[in-house]
Amino acid sequence: MTTKILSPGSRLGMLGGGQLGRMFGQAARRSGYGFVVFGDPSDSPAGQIADRTFAAGFLDEDALREFAPTVDVVSYEQENIPVRTVEFLQQFVPVYPGPELLKASQHRLLEKTSLRSIGIPTADFLRITSAEELAKGVEQFDGDAILKTVTLGYDGKGQARVRSSQDLNAVWSQFRTSEAILEKVVDFAFELSIVASRFSNGECRFYSPSVNHHVNHILDVSISPSPLISAKQVKEAQEIARGILEHFHVIGVLCVEFFATRDGGLVVNEIAPRPHNSGHLTMDACRSSQFEQQFRAICGLPSGDVQQRSPAVMINLLGDHLMNATPERWASVFELPGVFVHLYGKAEARIGRKMGHLNVLAETAEAAESLGHEARRRLGFVRTPIE
Ligand code: AMP
């Protein structure tokens, strides 16, 4: 398997104009690549820094035909891009990662079935198509389970904890779907993720895994390295990520999210077929960030250096955190050594909307974490979000 080498000056296409596309574009532009966004307007986070944007629908074949000759290679920044879009574009231009991984990561049942088929542990699960199956399933999982839509679920959306004491007919009808997945509740000690990349020569590279804390189902803080993660878990996370990269013939970057079980094991929760919010700390803590790895991989270049140079923490800035920010408060954050401000160019700060993040480097991960919280307090955010 070889990919044509695309040198600086080549044009990289991105499906989706969100922050992940923006940070990919920033990394690629720094090294002299052109950047074209498809699917969002020129004022989107990625559109703002693109040479050109195509604000068309992902299924608009005429627009895709027009886009294809403007780029030398294409990647995507979110998993809800239609698989048909990737397959259509592949007639004209390479798209990495290809449709196989995209398809699996869009469909929780297919994702878990594929993982199980290659021996990777996941939560026990059942396919649910009726209230009767739901009732039976909840019983099978000891009266307590998690019901999820099979598609379009992220940040805790499209999922509900269900117990046998509930009216399961009502739960099922509220879900308004013909197919769902029921998962056994994993009694986890903590959550972690690993960002991994694979190159055209088959080489795989792994960042140090991070421990992730969520608030209201949205990632709040990622910490790397964390003393919670054992050396055995690091190795296991790498081997699982390698298995997934190879199984889906990935060229590019992905993230595997895990539950760490209380007996020291790992269970995969889900796969993101792209760089991930928990990997943002690589932008300041590693020589080659997850976005640089992404453009290197799709351009047929060798891997960069993924070694982490310092303990680091990523702390998200949602609309909630910025409601009271003033110029003086911003200045007091820029005053803090070791704090790196990343904002995504979104005009409107809504509750729960990812506006940016802070990467914080310090002598220890613990010090970085408290500095990150201090920085967010300085912006005028009063509630301490860690539960
Ligand atoms: P997801 O959207 O599937 O990533 O789920 C969002 C969050 O819900 C996860 O980060 C976990 O905190 C929790 N969760 C999801 N599935 C399970 C499960 N099977 N067992 C325990 N917690 C879960």
How do the helices and strands line up, and which of them pair or pack?
Layout: E1 11-15, H1 19-30, E2 34-38, E3 52-54, H2 61-67, E4 73-76, H3 83-89, H4 99-106, H5 108-117, E5 125-128, H6 131-140, E6 144-149, E7 159-163, H7 168-175, E8 180-184, E9 188-198, E10 204-206, E11 210-215, E12 218-224, H8 231-247, E13 252-261, E14 266-272, H9 282-285, H10 290-298, E15 312-318, H11 319-322, H12 327-334, E16 339-343, E17 354-361, H13 365-378
Parallel strand pairs: 1-2, 1-4, 2-3
Antiparallel strand pairs: 5-8, 6-7, 6-8, 9-10, 9-11, 9-13, 11-12, 12-15, 13-14, 15-17, 16-17
This protein binds adenosine monophosphate.
Residues 123, 146, 153, 156, 159, 183, 185-186, 191, 214, 217, 269-270 line the site of adenosine monophosphate.
Summarize the structure in words.
- The chain has three domains: 11-95, 3-Layer(aba) Sandwich (Rossmann fold), CATH 3.40.50.20; 124-184, ATP-grasp fold, A domain (Dna Ligase, domain 1, 2-Layer Sandwich); 188-378, ATP-grasp fold, B domain (D-amino Acid Aminotransferase, Chain A, domain 1, 2-Layer Sandwich), CATH 3.30.470.
- The protein starts with 10 loop residues before the first strand and ends in a 9-residue tail after the last helix.
- Strands 9, 10, 11, 12, 13, 14, 15, 16 and 17 form a nine-stranded antiparallel beta sheet that branches.
- It has 387 residues and is an alpha+beta fold.
- Helix 4 crosses helix 5.
- It has helices at 19-30, 61-67, 83-89, 99-106, 108-117, 131-140, 168-175, 231-247, 282-285, 290-298, 319-322, 327-334, 365-378, and strands at 11-15, 34-38, 52-54, 73-76, 125-128, 144-149, 159-163, 180-184, 188-198, 204-206, 210-215, 218-224, 252-261, 266-272, 312-318, 339-343, 354-361.
- It contains 13 helices and 17 strands.
- Residues 123, 146, 153, 156, 159, 183, 185-186, 191, 214, 217, 269-270 line the site of adenosine monophosphate.
